[in-house]
Amino acid sequence: MTALYWQTVGEGDRDLVLLHGWGLNAQVWSCMLERLTPHFRLHLVDLPGYGRSQGFGAMSLEQMAETVLAAAPENAWWLGWSLGGLVASQIALMQPHRVRGLITVASSPCFAAKDDWPGIRPEVLSGFQHQLGQDFQRTVERFLALQTLGTESARQDARQLKSVVLNQPMPSVEVLNGGLEMLRTTDFREPLAVLTLPLLRIYGYLDGLVPRKVAGLLDAMWPHSPSAIIAKAAHAPFISHPDEFAEIICTFVAENGIRPQNAQ
């Protein structure tokens, strides 16, 4: 049986869909619920094959985006963290009329380092793909540990991420490899340059997976898209700095207006 896990909570009059990162599930947003539910109707999704969305095999980025979009409200804001940022970006590129605005968190239009583009070295991503088949759980834990390196609360944050993974069904090696393949091959730098939707990019200053240099390069490439860098955060800024993170989101959405709920 294949069914997408989808939970809706909150009292706000704006829909906000939250998409998690590689290896994780929607429980990763638990620290943000009390901060965001007064302002938004939150849609918490386990991406196909992750967490409680069981029964899905490896997908292309397009297939994953189509599967998630099919269950989504018509005119939502979309927030994607890391790999979830690629899924949300794919949705905005495929069906811009369905997207009120886009927020990416610790995400890059091109995760792999290329020429003068900063990112994850391709051999590192290939190494993770190879290691998944040998020691599945340890590989996932290593990747999670990389996400919190350098923060004042690194150990605590890493434990929180690990508990999110262990408290729900684990993705299959096939699904995790498919996600790493998306990180390794996707390059949205040019397609997103012409996107006319509101687009906010949030980064962690200490992030070792999406270097802060990406923010400055995209500021120049995408002048329509503001960026925010959280000073002492790494790859999971909403876990280490939840109040600052919530304030950035609420301010950006308020500044970009509210489209009436009955608008088509």
UniProtKB/TrEMBL annotation:
Protein location: Cytoplasm
Keywords associated with the record: Biotin biosynthesis, Cytoplasm, Hydrolase, Serine esterase
Limits of the AB hydrolase-1 domain: 16-242
GO MF terms held by the record: carboxylesterase activity
InterPro entries reported in the protein's UniProt record: AB_hydrolase_1 (IPR000073), AB_hydrolase_fold (IPR029058), BioH (IPR010076), Carboxylesterase_BioH (IPR050228)
Residues the record lists as binding substrate: W22, S82, L83, F143, L144, A145, L146, Q147, H235
One Pfam family of this chain: Abhydrolase_1
Domain of life: Bacteria
Metabolic or biological pathway, per its Swiss-Prot or TrEMBL entry: Cofactor biosynthesis; biotin biosynthesis
Record: active site: S82, D207, H235
Known catalytic reactions: 6-carboxyhexanoyl-[ACP] methyl ester + H2O = 6-carboxyhexanoyl-[ACP] + methanol + H(+)
NCBIfam families associated with the record: bioH
Function summary: The physiological role of BioH is to remove the methyl group introduced by BioC when the pimeloyl moiety is complete. It allows to synthesize pimeloyl-ACP via the fatty acid synthetic pathway through the hydrolysis of the ester bonds of pimeloyl-ACP esters.
Family of the protein in this entry: Belongs to the AB hydrolase superfamily. Carboxylesterase BioH family.
HAMAP family assigned to the protein according to its UniProt record, in alphabetical order: Carboxylester (MF_01260)
Subunit structure of this chain's protein: Monomer.
Identification of the protein by name: Pimeloyl-[acyl-carrier protein] methyl ester esterase
